[in-house]
Amino acid sequence: MCLSEQIVSDSEEVFDDVIDEFRDLDLILKHLEEWKRFDLDSYKEAYVNLSLPKIVSPLVRLSIITWNPFEVNIFNDFDEYSLLIVSHFRILK
């Protein structure tokens, strides 16, 4: 097995011990939005708007491991990033 195949294989196991709610970017963002609606003071005290990049970066990094800009149409593969950007601004309001 070559190094790139090993990296892809290992990357598929990174979140094996994480419950499904926290493996999906959309679900994580929904949890944050619910938290903001439910307890705005706690949400602000936790500096979620400043922490958001650190919260989602492992998922973003994992998803770009296998991304090859020469093989795919960039506009089809970045739905989750557009979701992240839209949600980020919605959370900041």
Task: Provide an overview of this structure.
With 93 residues, the protein is mainly α. It has one domain (18-92). Helices cover 69% and strands 0% of the residues. The longest helix is centred in the middle third of the chain and has 17 residues, at 48-64. The N and C termini lie far apart (48 Å). The mean pLDDT is 79.
Summarize the structure.
With 93 residues, the protein is mostly helical. 69% of the residues lie in helices and 0% in strands.
End-to-end separation: 48 Å
Domain count: 1
Largest sheet, in brief, is: none
Shape: elongated
Task: Give the mean pLDDT.
Answer: 79
What structural category arises from helix and sheet content?
A: mainly alpha
Helix and strand element order:
HHHHHH
Rg, alpha carbons = 16 Å
The number of helical runs is 6
**DSSP strand count:** 0
Low-confidence segments, ≥5 residues, pLDDT <50?
none
Strand content: under 5%
Helix content: 55-70%
List keywords for this structure.
69% helix; 0% strand; mainly alpha; 93 residues
Q: Which SSEs are present, and which pair or pack?
A:
Elements lengths: L2 H9 L13 H14 L1 H6 L2 H17 L9 H4 L1 H14 L1
